[in-house]
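Milestone M4 deliverable, item 7.
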Amino acid sequence: MCGHTAGRIKTLGHDFGMVRARKLTLSRTSNATEVNRKQKGHPMAKIEKTDAQWREELDPETYRVTRLAGTERPFSHPGFPKTPGVFTCACCGAELFAQENKFESHCGWPAFDAAKDDAPIAETRDTTHGMIRTEVHCDQCGAHLGHVFPDGPRETTGMRYCINGVSLRFVPKDAD
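Output delivered:
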């Protein structure tokens, strides 16, 4: 999940210049993304902020992981409560994963077998580090979340969304 190379990157139209960040091979187009968003019922307005705005709003590690496609160290995130609730994007608050889809994969990062049905999660082919992987990012704000792999629990979806903990916030379900 991790690794970086020096180079110029551009995300959602924002040029980050020469930074130490992972380059991604992007396979999506704006038209394909818009059609995908309409089919999934996502709001059409994407959140666009300047690099300076993101830096001001996010702590350094969350900024590095979500805006520069970094990876937090495995087993470095303190974890999340086991109570009912939803996991949201750390950058924009979009609801991404439900607590009932979280499972212990022992990979060092929070793992889920599925995203919420209406989650604004998009996938991008990632060919960095001599591997072919599928990167997942928030389609609402472009935040890098992690990767998805086809080695999750067979009894559910068979998928493992391996997500950086700093990319998520946990919102407990309201006690009625």
